[in-house]
Amino acid sequence: MAAFVMVLTLGSLVTSCPAGEIETAEIVCQNSRSLFAPADSSAYRKYAPDRRVDILHLALDVTPDFKQRTVAGKVMLRFKPIAKPLDELRLDGVDLKVSAASSTEKIQGYQVTDKEIVITFEKPIPAGQQAEVTVAYSAQPAKGLYFRTAEMG
């Protein structure tokens, strides 16, 4: 008899819960899933990286080659570190072929990945001190640039 009373009590509690509360709880749970989503998931939250430098000037020299459908160029970036000394500078550079990198500060070396260029300085550049980096590169753009010639109309 006591078991029957307990089942009856639990049944009345479940049916007395408003539907709106159940849906709200479900929505909250669904939104919290993105907190634990894997990095390659579309639910993963992406944030802008910390801004370590203040860009003062950017000069681009780009030469397109319409026959080869490539570009070659040089970029000069003048910057100063914002809050902390800067030991390496990371620049976006998807599928770039870098032929040279130079700076007003001594460079220990640079690395090119399929997504970025990482320039490592011998000594960290103090916050507030201006510096320049020049990178010579070439690329065969996959998106964003269309090579139209007179033959194409």
Q: What is the mean pLDDT?
A: 81
Radius of gyration: 28 Å
Separation of the first and last Cα atoms: 89 Å
Please trace the helix and strand order, writing H or E for each element.
HHEEEEEEE
Q: Main beta sheet, described?
A: 4 strands, antiparallel
CATH class of the largest domain: Mainly Beta
By CATH, the superfamily of the largest domain comes out as tricorn interacting facor f3 domain
CATH architectural arrangement of the largest domain: Sandwich
Total DSSP E strands = 7
Structure description:
This protein is an alpha+beta fold and 153 residues long. The chain has 2 domains: 35 residues, no CATH class; 87 residues, Immunoglobulin-like, CATH 2.60.40.1730. It has 2 helices and 7 strands. The strands form 2 sheets. The protein has a 4-stranded antiparallel sheet with strand order 1-2-7-4, with no helix packed on it. The chain has a 3-stranded antiparallel sheet with strand order 3-6-5, with no helix packed on it. The longest helix is centred in the N-terminal third of the chain and has 15 residues. The mean pLDDT is 81.
Task: Please give a quick description of this structure.
The chain has 153 residues and is an alpha+beta fold. The chain has helices spanning 2-16, 19-32; strands at 53-65, 70-81, 86-92, 97-103, 107-112, 116-125, 131-139.
Features:
four-stranded antiparallel beta sheet; Immunoglobulin-like; about 150 residues; alpha+beta; three-stranded antiparallel beta sheet; about 20% helix; 2 domains
